[in-house]
From TrEMBL:
Keyword vocabulary terms for this entry: Oxidoreductase
Gene3D superfamilies reported for this sequence: Medium-chain alcohol dehydrogenases, catalytic domain (3.90.180.10), NAD(P)-binding Rossmann-like Domain (3.40.50.720)
Annotated Alcohol dehydrogenase-like C-terminal domain residues: 161-293
Species of origin: Hevea brasiliensis (Para rubber tree)
Domain Oxidoreductase N-terminal, residue spans: 2-115
Single GO term (MF): 2-alkenal reductase [NAD(P)H] activity
Protein name, entry field: Enoyl reductase (ER) domain-containing protein
InterPro entries according to UniProt: ADH-like_C, ADH_N_2, GroES-like_sf, MDR_fam, NAD(P)-bd_dom_sf
Amino acid sequence: NKQVILKEYVSGLPKESDLQVTTGSIKLKIPEGCNGILVKNLYLSCDPYIRTRMKNLQLKGAHVDSFQPGSPISGYGVAKVLESEHPNFKKGDLIWGITDWEEYSLITEPETLFKIQDKDMPLSYYTGILGMPGVTAYAGFFEICSPKKGEYVFVSAASGAVGQLVGQFAKLSGCYVVGSAGSKEKVDLLKNKFGFDEAFNYKEEQDLNAALQRYFPEGIDIYFENVGGKMLDAVLLNMRIRGRIAVCGMISQYNLDQPEGVYYLANIILKRIRMEGFLVFDYYHLYPKYLEMVLPKIREGKIVYVEDKAEGLESGPAALTGLFVGRNVGKQVVVVADE
Ligand code: NDP
């Protein structure tokens, strides 16, 4: 049973060498008295929050805890049930949810897993558009941002797992949407594949405030925040009265020991801005409603999804750490095995 192990707690930019692929043994049998399931992992999802668990966390009131050095890391994945002692699952079922980064896993509390019903979709989509990032984009945009037709929307990290969906939801809602991303290839994708009205490469802008003024001469109604730091400051300067900011993530801050300051928060008062952080875990009750909306749109080609697939568990460390230097183009997935 190949596994991806965390070697030591990480500080700074995570490196491939912070993780190690080892081969351990596993009994392909559920232990006596355990009502869990044994699964074969097919796809693993590279998500920025995994970085948070790679450090020695002492966060009060947070949902997450640290990984144990020497043990496999875990995250969302798609897997096939090989054996089940749990009444809700049977051999052959396909599931998505939290699993370890390894070939085969024993999941002792399968209650939190989702059973995959719609099998005409690519299974890897259940790590992205049909999984956690999909619910994140849906809840963050529709529940937190309350979009109205004609509003001006800005999305950062716009070509990624979450951002590419937010942009498409904004277009379907009749909004004007601009995205930022870190390369020409990504900017082209935003404009030509996902239908953003405009897009720019934030790495080429000397002055983010000036860039936003250029794309939003009348200001921003909705900001879907994925990056934090300097971008957030520039956005605060460009928000319109009664604008909304959904704080989904702040990837530019995850590897810093000392977070950057945000200077223009007082705009929240003057412009009566509503800024709200959220975690996808609080919104999984919306999953059936979300599937009802998104599945027909995927089938009709009205929503598209770009994935970046790394082949084999061995490629896991590079794929995961690549998120923090923008190596992924679209949703980063690790393909562990074929069905
Ligand atoms: P992505 O697929 O967008 O991958 C991460 C991307 O972030 C990279 O490709 C890179 O793109 C960009 N990036 C990396 N470092 C920086 C930096 N220093 N400054 C600016 N951009 C950077 O990830 P996801 O779509 O999965 O996640 C997007 C955000 O949503 C993250 O902040 C994540 O933590 C958050 N999130 C929050 C959830 C919640 O429940 N609140 C749930 C899921 C995700 P580029 O080339 O454009 O720089």
